[in-house]
Amino acid sequence: MSVVRDLRVLLRLRDFRSLLAVRLLSQAADGVYQVALATYVVFSPERQASPAAIASALAVLLLPYSLLGPFAGVLLDRWRRRQVLLYGNLLRTVLVIGTAALISARASDWLFYASALSVMAVNRFVLAGLSAALPRVVAGTEQLVMANSLSPTAGTLATTAGGGLAFAIRLAGVQSNTVVVLLAAVLYLCAAGISLRMAPGLLGPDPSQLQSRAGTALLSTARGLVAGLRHLAERRTAAAALTAMTALRFCYGALTVMVLMLCRYAWSESESDGLALLGVAVGVSGAGFFAAAVITPSVVARFTPLVWMAYCAGAAALLAPALGLTFAYVPLLIAAFVIGLCTQAAKISTDTVVQSSVDDAFRGRVFAVYDMLFNVAYVGAAAVAAVMLPPDGRSGVLVIAVALFYATTAVSLLRLVRR
Predict the structure, then answer these.
(1) What span, in angstroms and rounded, lies between the C-alpha atoms of 359 and 237?
(2) Is the pLDDT of residue 64 over 70?
(3) Inter-axis angle of helices 51-76 and 14-41, to 10 degrees?
């Protein structure tokens, strides 16, 4: 199979393997940490979760960094990305240990959210660095497309696996969220160690772009951000891909909150049962991510990334109401697979468009904008879901609205391609 052959070519590249290992360990830790937060906030017996509470938690964790993310991107284009991966993961190790201490001490909510916010802020910085560094460890557009299929998707699967491990630990009888959080700290530390296998200057940016003093880099942040946005505006294909991906992320976020509430209240009678059902749903969605990684390179080679994104949005527009309006567990598991496949396929296409059409000197700040849009869309989706969802999670209006949003995105992409 050509996919297997291409994967073998990529995995022969030592630096690609090292970067991939950092991503896998880092995102597996993300999965462990995020599930620990979810079980603490949503599935703790002493807490009565609601869509509004979930939206508030997401806003606290994601929105502040989302507004500041592009400024971090300017620094990402001026500091060695290998060092960002090293020190970012070391910092997360320390911060996660702090979160574990706060959970163990039953500290007030604002302290807990402040700690979690710090971890997630560094997390987004590291993920943008991983994406910006990828073109430096492969050769040519063909390898880049395959790398974008393998690396981010493998990272997403690692997040799913990490979350599954956290679920398994809890369902095996370990009731302490502190233990699960400390496991994330160990994985972050391992990711930092693997990053040392790469040379400090390997991942870029070019030496002429580097600024060793943080103060000098921060002073140029505003001008760098404007230049990055101007650079993106000049590349209409990349801007269109980012806009469409933001819309798909919004839809995915709204449906995720709905499924979470269904698992918590409609499909289960206890917190442990709801947690188990959510774990299965996350795993099925992860299988959709894997399927996207397998089929996207060949489909993009036949069509174009934007056309493939339009097809994914169109398929989701048709299947989301057909399966989601039943509010039954098995049809929604099928929907989780399909929506996961469509969302990840669109992300692979977007990554490829941005990386191939954005200059290396601007890649870090553009991916930081990309990350900001991801977070804002997710928080916005949670806010909309908080307004539209009843306590048990059953809302036909939400499902229909999401389907219409998918359809609008598909039509807009096809019109752009024709023009």
Answers:
(1) 14
(2) no
(3) 150
CB-side neighbour CA atoms (13 Å) of 416: 21
Of the chain, the percentage scoring pLDDT greater than 90 comes to 33
On the CB side of 409, CA atoms within 13 Å amount to: 33
- The CA R_g of the chain, rounded to the nearest whole Å, is 20
- State the Cα–Cα distance between residues 261 and 389, nearest whole angstrom: 9
Q: How many CB atoms lie within 10 A of CB 223?
A: 10
What mean pLDDT is reported for the chain?
Answer: 84
H-assigned helices in 172-270: 177-195, 214-219, 221-233, 236-261
Please compute, for residue 39, the number of CA atoms within 13 A of its CA located in the half-sphere on the CB side.
31
Q: How many domains does the chain have?
A: 1
- The C-alpha angle with vertex 418 and arms to 342 and 248, in degrees rounded to 5, equals 25
Whether 195 and 87 have beta carbons less than 8 Å apart is answered as no
Cβ atoms within 10 A of the Cβ of 111, count? 13
Q: What is the CATH number of the domain that holds 29?
A: 1.20.1250.20
* 71, 225 contact by CB (below 8 A): yes
- What's residue 332's pLDDT? 93
For residue 24 the two structure tokens come to 């896998």
Q: Which domain holds residue 161?
A: 2-418
Six-digit token string for 190:
């391992």
CA distance 361 to 135: 12
CA atoms within 13 A on the CB side of 408: 12
